[in-house]
Amino acid sequence: MNEEYDVIVLGTGLTECILSGIMSVKGKKVLHMDRNSYYGAESASITPLEDLYKRFSMPGSPPESMGKGRDWNVDLIPKFLMANGQLVRMLLITQVTRYLDFKVIEGSFVYKKGSIYKVPSTETEALGSSLMGIFEKRRFRKLLVFIANFDENDPKTMEGVDPKQSTMRDVYKKFDLGQDVIDFTGHALALYRTDDYLDLPCLETINRIKLYSDSLARYGKSPYLYPLYGLGELPQGFARLSAIYGGTYMLNKPIEEIVVENGKVVGVKSEGEVARCKQLICDPSYVMDRVTKVGQVIRVICIMSHPIKNTSDANSCQIIIPQNQVNRQHDIYVCMISYAHNVAAQGKYVAIISTTVETNDPEKEIKPALELLEPVEQKFVSVSDQFGPVDLGVESQIFVSRTYDATTHFETTCDDIKDIYKRMTGTDFDFAEMERKKNDIFGDAAE
User: Fold this and answer.
1) Which of 129, 172, 314, 342 has a 20 to 30 Å separation from 99 between CA atoms?
2) Is 248:28 a contact under the CB 8 Å cutoff?
3) Quick one: DSSP state of residue 187?
4) Is 332 helix (H, G, I), strand (E, B) or coil?
5) Which domain holds residue 313?
């Protein structure tokens, strides 16, 4: 243990495991420790079901109708992967995909006036959608065609829209779109959590909608993927990557102290020994004096014996409830997976509701989502604080990740990973460089 490392990582959440893998691939000597006996930290998948009951202090044990406890792998943080998103790119480049199997999520839905509708994201779907009237459909289709053709380097494709000056509000106005269409375009396609984006330059939103469409084009049913056996498989995959490149892992390791000298990290003390390091990566729980609370998220895990109504009996889906539909400032999300993903007993479904807390009665806030799921056999409610680092970590060389937000995809997590990487190395994260590093070591076998 009394060794010197380039980087010590504390916590095995997905953010920490990906950074550990990336730093190992870069040739850094990495030591990775976690006080828990399992991978995933806050983003773990809990198995068996008995452990989930214990974690939420539920009385008694799961009823026999829930099947075998070992058949369950329940995510604490519900998220899907965008098929063309940053995390899938990281998985492909690092080849962590060889340890995982994915399934496409069967549908993406949006809530309007108490009912749910499939999200139309292609021109054909737009014309067939019951979400809009006939004239709205044509206008929405024109918007999709405009976005598909939009190229910020070719003024001919812009139709008078300046990507850096025109706001998204201006773009919606140009196509004469009504509030309901604006709601589902901004929240179910561009996946914004609030309406703050409306008055910002439109390029970011256009790129987000392109990402959604490109992800959808890859597999057809929805733009989302999900790993068999739960999200807990992802951190483990990146942990294996780190180990291939010489990273050392220690679970069940109590962390007594982060040793700082002259304002800079020099090591980590565990069980009386100090492992020295030049840089430290950790989740907020290890350095509560270096983070600030930025909000709260409520998550409700619901176990059911039926698919969600009006989803064509899908084994998996996402539902987004845009804020305006329920007089809120933040959207409400529902992620549903099932026995088809090896995360539940035969015939069982797991739906997880999440949103950013706005009042003193978080459970009341998610009522519209809960009503869509009835009847629910068992629910597990958690309200957790969200934390962010108080500084960039450049002085102390202690780099703290952000708590997972309420979104149902990993794009914000990947932004955090790239941000920490830049602060640690002084350079932008470069997907192409990762590809080259991997090929240098594996050679042709990496193909």
Assistant:
1) 314
2) no
3) I
4) strand
5) 60-106+295-386
Residue 381's CATH number = 3.30.519.10
Helices (H) and strands (E) counted in the chain, each on its own, are 13, 19
- Whether residue 125 is found in the same domain as residue 86: no
Task: Give the number of domains in the chain.
Answer: 3
Per the CB < 8 A criterion, the answer to whether 394 and 63 are in contact is no
Q: Is residue 55 part of a domain?
A: no
Q: Is the pLDDT assigned to residue 356 strictly greater than 90?
A: yes
Q: The tokens of 100 are what?
A: 């995982």
Taking the mean position of all CA atoms in its chain, how far away is CA 248?
26
CATH code of the domain covering residue 165:
1.10.405.10
Q: State mean pLDDT over 319-347.
A: 96
Q: Residue range 420-434: average pLDDT?
A: 90
Please determine, for residue 445, whether its predicted confidence score (pLDDT) is greater than 60.
no
List CB contacts of 315: < 8 A, sequence separation 6 or more: 106, 307, 337, 338, 339, 340, 341, 349
pLDDT in tens, 187-218: 999 999 889 999 999 999 999 999 998 898 88
> Do residues 275 and 375 touch, judged by C-beta distance below 8 A?
no
Angle at 186 between CA 107 and CA 91, to 5 degrees: 55
- Which residues lie below 8 Å from residue 158, measured CB to CB, with a gap of 6+? 150, 152
Strand partners, 354: 299, 333
pLDDT > 80? residue 1 = no
- How many CB atoms within 10 Å of residue 298? 20
Rounded-to-integer distance, Cα 256 and Cα 265, Å: 14
Largest CA distance in the chain: 71
> 442 pLDDT band (50/70/90 cuts)?
very low
Whether 171 shows a pLDDT value over 80: the answer reads yes
Is-cis flag, bond preceding 48, omega within 30?
yes
- The answer to whether residue 439 scores a pLDDT higher than 70 is no
The reported pLDDT for the residue numbered 428 is 94
Task: Determine the 3-state secondary structure of 377 from DSSP.
Answer: coil
Q: What is the CATH number of the domain that holds 281?
A: 3.50.50.60
Half-sphere exposure of residue 413: CA atoms within 13 angstroms, side-chain side: 30
The answer to whether position 319 is within a domain reads yes
pTM across the whole model: 0.92
Q: Looking at the structure, tell me whether residues 407 and 422 fall in a common domain.
A: yes
At residue 289, the pLDDT reads: 96
pLDDT at 76: 95
CA atoms of 148 and 216, how far apart (whole Å): 13
**d(C-alpha 28, C-alpha 441), whole Å:** 14
Both structure tokens of 241 = 């990557």
Classify burial at 251, counting beta carbons within 10 Å of its beta carbon; exposed 0-12, middle 13-18, buried 19 or more. Answer: middle
Do 122 and 201 belong together in one domain? yes
* Amino acid of residue 213: S
